[in-house]
Amino acid sequence: MEVGGEEFAIGVVISAKTTLGEEFEGQIVAFDRPSNLLVIHEGVGRAERGERRNVRVLKANYIREFSVVSKGDDPLDPAGCMLDLDAIYAREEAALRQAEIDAERIGVGVTPEAQSIFDALSKTLPVQWDKTDIVVMKEVRVRSPYMPENVSGGTAAANERVKKVIDFERKRLHARVPGLS
Amino acid sequence: MMSHQQHMAPPSRGSVNGFPHRKLEKESSGRHDNKTNLVRSSSGGLSGAENGIILGHGSHSRDRLIYVLTQLIGHHVDVHVKNGSIISGIFHATNSDKDFGVVLKMAQVIKDGSPKGQRYAADIIKKPETMILPARELVQVFAKDVALGGDELPKGPGHDKRKDLLIDSAISRPHYLEERELERWAPDEGDSECIELEKYDRKGNRSWDQFETNAALFGVKSTFNEEIYTTKLERGPHMRELEKHASRIAREIEGEDTKDIHLAEERGLFLGDDLDHDEEIKYSAVRRDTDNSKYKSFTNVPSSTHHVGSFNRTVNIDPKDSLACSSTMGEESSSYTFDNTDSSAITQARNVSQPKFDDPSNKPFSVGENRLDKKLSKDNNENLDNRKLQPENNQLSAGVRPLISEGLDGPPSSSQPSSSGQGFKSPETPDSTISVKPSVMEPMTSSRRPGSSTSSTSERIAANSVASTPGLSPSSSIGSLTSEKSTLNPNAKEFKLNPNAKSFTPSVSLRPPNPPASDASYYYPNNMPAAPLGPGLPVGMTFPPAYGGQPVMYNPQPGTPPQGYMHPAGPQVRKLYL
What ipTM, to 2 d.p.? Predict the structure, then answer.
């Protein structure tokens, strides 16, 4: 299909190094000269329907060196390249939704230690971030540095419970990662 | 979600930070016509690549690139940029017009290549945001697990399940709050034939016959034959009369008074505002009232199946006199129980029925009878087998003889029981020939509660036991089961007031608000807990908790004399009918 003679021919399996120090190997799926973008997928041969491969879209000018490993057939089926836009957008929506959920679990501007305490708490309690405070069950607040004495609010029972959990989790973290303060 | 769009640009996605949202859009650019065609052909969704991929020079490669990039949408990708940083996010768009800059959503710098960034990256985590990475910065886009061969074939409407399992917490999260302006639905242009579902003409008949339409459109003929499902109507010269007769009966039934709150509500009768009647009592399908549940325990289920035939035989004779039957039944059952030693349940029944009669002026009883009367009168022309004695009938006190004589002459129902006081007529075979188990006979169906079919058996049985006189001698005429109007059993022992009978005082604690016993619990076990139930109740009379508080009077002493069964502690089997 493509112009022959070019090193980046479709189907060719190359092994390359980038200027950023990354090394990889894969089969050329596409090469767009005007934009100098090379599309490579790991694994040789045509991907079946539903088969998943890792894909790279690499700007060819960042390839420091490469070598041809083998030559193969076109990994894309020209007649079979169909794009199900609905599915694609649905996938994107789902991914975004999930990412939002995950993002809420990450505290912004908090230390990794705080984050691990949050993660530990979230295993058994509903927790949210409020700036750098952890809010448990929407009523108990844990401020930095997230020690049991920093627990405030909520009913006495809830408060106690959070204190205990924090205490326990801290101990666990210390046992696992002695360096963690 | 999105219909097939030729131009692959999602609608209404707005722009990102001013960066026009240009996901592989082609038409809009207008610059590369060959690309337009290409896009069209390659973006045919699942409908197949109707291809004629018209390519210009070099557009082949661009096609492929675009194909791959489009497949990346929605995937998590790592973008490497010039300065060594790596940004991770969800691939959202690329500028295919120009040089393929990349737009990522929910992106974060996971590795900061800049000298400044190195110091803080480990400490600070930033919130994900949408990032645009210009082409000049771009080094590489790396995505894992991309199905370049196309995704698996969708399995029909539900095929999105792998990605789109929306759990509630995901949906309810307050994100993406896009409040939509709701518009009233208007039919599309092509839908001229909007057949409304509720199109009625003047007379209130629908002008559209679905069966006609179905037959016309699809040649489907309806094979419905009403007679398969219901009694064949004899449409003859007498049709008119029969109809009138039927509607008269219907009116009578529907208009009559009832104590049952459900029926009352249906008929529009106001029973008085009982504050205890919350919605559950009023509208639940579960019957919690004490009426029928009592009777369950009385049933001698095992035997019930046997003598139906014989019983019915007698009864059928005069269907009109249902009233008599009911009372008879009670008697019969009582007498029957005496005969039948194995029926502890029946014994119970007997016992139960007794207390009531101790007090002839016992109101509940008459009330019960009343209802009984009414019910019986309804069952005119049928061999009713669904009898439902009102609970009040239960209240037969020990020693009561012909119950019938007492209350049956009470408030007349729509059909006057022609109570021949003492005489049950004809068909009665006055003796124990009626081996019919009391539970069995049900010539009269009390159609009070239409929906009671499930519990009918129990009711029947209960009815039997209750019906009337506890103190009947074995030889009391069972034959009175016939539909005599008279509710008196000529052979029944005369009622004698028992001055020792304890008068029943309803006790609050005995109120049975419990859930009704399961229908299955007909058979009342012999081992009753002996704990006294409350004031006024003799030891031994308890409401078995297992039965949800059915006020079943179970007397655990089977050996008591038949005559006026008197509980040693006094005829206290009061029906705790509160």
Answer: 0.80
